[in-house]
Amino acid sequence: MSTLVMGARQTELLRVLLVEDNAVDARFITALLRSPATPLQCTHVTRLGAALEHLRRDAPDVILLDLNLEDSAGYETFGRMQQAASGAAILVLSGSDDEELAIKTVREGAQDYLVKGTFDGRLLLRSIRYAIERKRSEEALRQSEATVRAIFENSLDGIVIFEDDGICLEANAAAATLLNLPRGDLIGRRLCDFCEKGFEEVWAELRLAESGRGRFWADLKDGSLRLVDYCFTANVLPGQHLAMLRDITEQQDMEEQLRDSQKMEAIGRLAGGVAHDFNNILGIISGHAELLESNATGVVERGRAEKIISATEKAASLTRQLLAFGRKQVMSLKVLDLAAVLDGLSSMIDCMMGAEVQISIHANRNVGQVRADQSQMEQVIMNLTANAHEAMPEGGTLTITIDSHQSSADDPVLPPGEYTRLSVSDTGAGMSQEVQSRVFEPFFTTKLNGSGLGLSTVYGIVKQSGGYITVQSTPQRGSTFNVYLPVVRGNEITPAPAEYRKHSQVPGHETILLVDNEEDLRNAACEYLESCGYRVLSAGDGKEAVEICDRHTGPISLLISDIVMPKMSGRGVVEHVRKTRPATSVLMISGYANDAVWSHGIALDPSCFLQKPFTFQALSAKIRGILDKESY
Amino acid sequence: MRKKSKQNRHLKSEQFDPESLWKRVDGDLALLCELVELFAAEVPPMLARIEAAIKNGSASELEKASHKIKGSVLQFSAHSAAAVALELEENGRLGSIAGAEALLIKLRAEIDVLQQTLRGMVGGGAGRFQE
Questions:
Q1: Does A413 contact chain B (CB < 8 Å)?
Q2: Which residues of B touch A36 (CB under 8 A)?
């Protein structure tokens, strides 16, 4: 092996490996390589073995290769060199003007095929320069193709190349997965075969427009429908068109769920707010009606007062349902065995259904316990059962199941975890998609005499209990409502607080500070409490309450305060009273549930809360419960 | 050291193209001298190899050796000698030794002429080019 450096003035030194076993030829060629304009370092070896050995140590830019050597001949010489030197440009120098061999070697990767004796130095150097440039271009193209191929193969989106008539030429793995076909089976199929009717026209428009985006429903061989987002670019190569496909079915479902959830949240806030204000008004009506009743001298007056009280109770029941939907209902949470709750209702369900409906109840008693309000859970079961009954006016089968459900991370509705599932199914009329999407809205009903509050109440209770509800329905085949409640683990089970003794109509003697900005309600309550024997200090807002508290010289046994008030909130009053009169007990009243107390930052035993509207008898009992407990 | 190719135009024939040779060495007489000397040293073993192949009846060896000498004479633009070498190479490739001896004699003659011509071009003494 010999190495010569020629014309080294230039900065880029080309490294040439000359593989030639004829001394005359080798000398001729090295002489031709002399050029000040093309500095190069030429290493000469006479055998293929030596050339391969050299390639293990060095990476020449170009190889000048004689095919017929002592240790190798013909095309085999080229093949072995090309395998060993994939980064170098190979120029074949041959004594044979063999067109067939020349074409074969060039086709397989040789940059040129020169016949000995037919070229001079200029031609040889030019061939070398061109060969190197072509090789670099090929390498850049190869890398670019490798990058594009890697993107094509690994893309999470489906990529398909189509011909003019929409026939698939090439498809990546993601496209095959999306269209639920083996990749090979996709080739030769038309895109329109997978799309809904009328997509042929869309395809024609896309071809004319050259590019476009849109969506189509893909009808897959397993009968399922997938919503596909596509991006089309025509003529990425002449007569070849690119389509990027993305399955957005789940995304669409999630968006719809989010929209539904936001809609229900907004409706819930509205319903809760209306119920709150309405409760205050009901409280005033109810309070005054109770005063009228207690002061009535005649039977007629007493009867009218009772009718008013009865009507306010019905109205309060309505607002309770609205509050339940708005998740602002007072809850008495305890750890429940849902199967036991269902068991307790079975006779009532039997009565409700009648003979035309077959009832099938599967309640697994080994399912996990849940934390919920028992009466609310009873309401959930009864409302769902009533709904199922109404869906089967001509009879059918009602199935109620309670079992365990383990949710995985990919569940679109439930967070991962263990749930107790209550399922109520009917074989009735079923619901359309549109009805299903609105079924939990308050006042939405498809029945002539429906209130539209049954299922919305269920929804509110389930959400307030930290659970989830889903509905599956097929028109003419029936519906299934699934309620999922998180299972309470052993260390989360705490005994329910003992209920205080109920008191009613017990005469009082203590001093009470009553704060409420609803003057009519406050005055009625004052009058009632005074009639019970209490001394009542009345304040129209928090600031006035604080002043009375500071000014009053005697003891104040109980502070009864609304929460949301002008000037100073209930929280401010409570803090002041606790600081200046630590012996004074506190009872908060509000049109919202007791969670509103916590949200206003007042640390309070849940038993020291009364939700409006309340009867004065209930108020009286609550007061005695608190004061008598304090005196124990 | 350069010499104009015009000086050797009289040597041009169908068998040999001195102008082409001068062009290929870019008029470099020193290089041509070196190549002619190298050729003179390399030719005898190459011819001996062809002779041995014929004697041993080895067609493949005849093909290889003939191909080799063909490349060398082509470098000197000696088309006539290259044509005879190619004929020998073809005989070897086809496995035919018959007639090879006659072709070898013809090749030797062509190479003798070539070497004389080359000596004339470089103006060197005969002794330098004797086999």
A1: no
A2: none
Residue among A69, A84, A78, A2 nearest A41 (CA): A2
* Residue-number span of the structural domain to which B85 is assigned: 15-123
Measured between beta carbons, which residues in chain B are less than 8 angstroms from residue A32?
Answer: 24
Does residue B131 lie within any of the structural domains? no
pLDDT of residue A481: 95
Task: Kindly state whether residue B8 falls inside one of the protein's structural domains.
Answer: no
**Whether the predicted pLDDT of A1 surpasses 80:** no
Gap between the Cα atoms of A226 and A242, Å rounded:
20
Q: Choose among A23, A32, A95: nearest Cβ to B70.
A: A95
Count of domains for chain B? 1
CB contact under 8 A, B71 and A27: no
CA gap B36, B76 in Å, rounded: 9
Q: What is the pLDDT of residues A233-279, one digit of tens each?
A: 999 889 999 999 999 998 888 887 777 777 777 777 777 777 777 88
**pLDDT tens digit sequence for A477-509:** 899 999 999 998 765 544 444 333 333 455 788
Question: Is B40 inside any structural domain?
Answer: yes
Listed residue (A552, A522, A556) closest to A538, CA to CA:
A522
Say if strands A240-247 and A225-237 run parallel, antiparallel, or are unpaired: antiparallel
Looking at the domain assignment, is residue B4 inside a domain? Answer: no
Q: One-letter amino acid identity for B51? A: E
Q: What is the ipTM of this complex?
A: 0.78
**Each residue's pLDDT tens digit, A187-222:** 998 888 888 777 888 888 888 888 899 988 888 888
Token pair, residue A453, equals: 């509050």
- Residues sharing a CB contact under 8 Å with residue A148, sequence separation 6 or more, in sequence order: none
CB pair distance less than 8 Å for A32 and B24: yes
CB A161 within 8 A of CB A172: no
CATH of the domain at B33: 1.20.120
